[in-house]
UniProtKB/TrEMBL annotation:
<dbReference type="GO" id="GO:0000149">
    <property type="term" value="F:SNARE binding"/>
</dbReference>
<protein>
    <submittedName>
        <fullName>Exocyst complex component 3</fullName>
    </submittedName>
</protein>
<dbReference type="Pfam" id="PF06046">
    <property type="entry name" value="Sec6"/>
</dbReference>
<dbReference type="InterPro" id="IPR010326">
    <property type="entry name" value="EXOC3/Sec6"/>
</dbReference>
<dbReference type="GO" id="GO:0000145">
    <property type="term" value="C:exocyst"/>
</dbReference>
<dbReference type="GO" id="GO:0051601">
    <property type="term" value="P:exocyst localization"/>
</dbReference>
<dbReference type="GO" id="GO:0006887">
    <property type="term" value="P:exocytosis"/>
</dbReference>
């Protein structure tokens, strides 16, 4: 015989219970007693179950009866609602006309009550406007704003009562508008005073922070008034356009004024082509002025400004972003003007210096906002710089060969050094050109320094070929007797000494260039070539 899972569990439990009762042989004598006890317990449980079932049945029966009654009531309500709706459609229009005078009286009562509440302010409008103008002229902006707020509050309350009703938008050009129209000009006058303060915020936060705080308190109050008024108008179903001059949005105007002041400051720093022509150091002076202005303004904002402005403005980050943008515009304008190699070097060194100095002294990381110069622009500038450097170096070295030839054919003997040895200035001039160009571009980094070194050594190689050809021609003409300058032999000696000095200068250059892996090979090549020139001359 198969049992379900529940039946099997019950049988197991019964077996365990019997086993617990009959643990000893003598317990069998109590078997009848146990049976009667179980029978009584079973009868009690069955009686409880019957009572519970009976109670549930009675409850269900009562519930069904109540549902029936509720259904009848609902049906009656539906019928009554339908009758009410029919009556409403028939009599609603008539009732509306009957109630209309009452509504109008109520509306007028509300208007009169509002007027009565503000009667003192209404009669004092001309005097209050005049006093407020004087307060603004005296710089007492908080008192002026308090007067203006009271006047505007009275006007707004009256206008909301005027426009709250069925004929709300019939007449928008009421005498009430004319009576309060001076408030628009008064508000604008106060706003101009605030914008003048915001325009000089970077200066005032250190010299007179009270002015800045006062202006910001007024701006924030107006922002809250805007929010509350718009919410009230929305609840009453009145468009904000019905209230003249609202919302003012002075916080947005404050931000715009700060941005305008920053833009004007950078525009005032712009340089002209005339300044560029008249002053060869124009770029350094211009960049120094830009850096000084940015540094002083950001220092004022990051130290004193953050204490004046509410945290929601995040004023330090705001100024850093705007000044970062202004620096990018300055750099782009300079690049568009067309820079020579010297100017490019100055500009790129300045960019690195300003990032470092701002980070170390102000804690302002301009790089975190973004690069001041794009990578492709920097690459193009470096190419231009390298090209100009190569052109200048090759031109200078070419002119040196011509100058040397003219000196060889002169009637004056060559110069002597402190030891009495003859020499020509070619060695000194040559390596001054190389060293100056390498040192000038060294701050731009090792890759740039290496590139310039290769350019100079390439130009030096070309110079050596031209110099050797000129020397060979001069030597052959002298031997053949085609030229007989009085100092020919002395110049041959001077040339040999100069080639020796070139070898020494090249060794010095090699010793200075620690860290440039490719330099020893290139310089060694130049040393060997100079030595060949020396031996050939000897």
């Amino acid at each position: 015989m198969e049992f379900t899972l529940a039946e099997a569990e019950s049988i197991d439990l019964a077996k365990k219970a019997v086993a617990e009762m009959l643990t000893k042989p003598e317990d069998l004598e109590k078997l009848e007693q146990y049976r009667r006890k179980v029978a009584r317990k079973k009868a009690t449980v069955e009686s409880q179950l019957r009572n519970a079932v009976q109670t549930q049945l009675e409850g269900v029966q009562t519930g069904l009866e109540n549902l029936g009654e509720a259904q009848k009531v609902i049906s009656e309500i539906k019928i009554s609602m339908a009758e009410v709706e029919d009556v409403f459609h028939e009599k609603g229009a008539e009732l509306s006309e009957v109630v209309r005078p009452i509504k109008e009286v109520n509306r007028r009562h509300q208007q009169l009550k509002t007027t009565s509440d503000h009667i003192h302010n209404i009669f004092n409008v001309p005097q209050a406007v005049s006093e407020t103008h004087e307060l603004i002229k005296e710089g007492k902006l908080l008192e002026a704003h308090r007067n203006l707020s009271e006047l505007e509050h009275t006007r707004d309350e009256l206008l909301m009562q005027l426009y709250h009703g069925d004929d709300a938008y019939v007449d928008k050009n009421t005498s009430l508008h004319h009576y309060y129209e001076e408030l628009i000009g008064l508000s604008g006058n106060l706003g101009q005073s605030l914008w003048m303060i915001m325009n000089s915020a970077t200066l005032l936060v250190t010299e007179n922070p009270t002015k800045v705080v006062t202006a910001l308190r007024i701006i924030e109050r107006e922002e809250r008034i805007d929010t509350m008024l718009v919410e009230t108008l929305d609840l009453k179903g009145i468009p904000p356009s019905q209230i003249p001059g609202r919302p003012k949005k002075w916080r947005s105007k404050c931000i715009e004024m700060l941005e305008t002041s920053i833009s004007n400051k950078f525009e005032s720093l712009e340089t002209t082509s005339e300044q560029r022509i008249e002053n060869k150091d124009w770029l350094m002076e211009h960049l120094s002025e830009v850096a000084r202005t940015c540094y002083m303004d950001l220092q004022a904002i990051t130290t004193a400004g953050v204490q004046c402005f509410p945290p929601s403005y995040d004023i330090a980050a705001f100024f850093i972003k705007r000044y970062h943008r202004g620096l990018i515009e300055v750099i782009c304008q300079l690049i568009d003007m067309g820079l020579n190699a010297r100017d490019i070097i100055t500009l790129m060194i300045w960019i690195g210096d300003i990032k470092t100095s701002f980070a170390e002294t102000l804690g302002v990381d301009l790089q975190s906002v973004g690069p001041l110069m794009k990578t492709d622009v920097e690459t193009d500038l470096l190419k231009t710089c390298h090209g100009q450097v190569e052109s200048n170096v090759r031109e200078l070295m070419g002119n040196m060969v011509k100058t040397e030839q003219e000196e060889w054919n002169s009637q004056q003997p060559p110069e002597c050094d402190v030891k009495g040895k003859y020499y020509t200035p070619v060695g000194i001039n040559l390596f001054q050109i190389i060293d100056q160009n390498i040192q000038a571009l060294a701050p731009l980094g090792l890759p740039t320094k290496m590139k310039v070194l290769k350019i100079c050594l390439g130009a030096l190689d070309e110079f050596q070929r031209k110099y050797r050809n000129a020397l060979d021609g001069y030597y052959k003409d002298a031997v053949a007797g085609r030229i007989e300058p009085p100092c020919c032999v002395l110049y041959i000696i001077a040339i040999a000494n100069s080639c020796r000095s070139c070898v020494e200068f090249t060794e010095q250059l090699k010793g200075k260039s620690v860290g440039l892996e490719a330099l020893p090979v290139l310089v060694s090549f130049q040393i060997d070539t100079f030595e060949e020139d020396v031996y050939g001359a000897e």
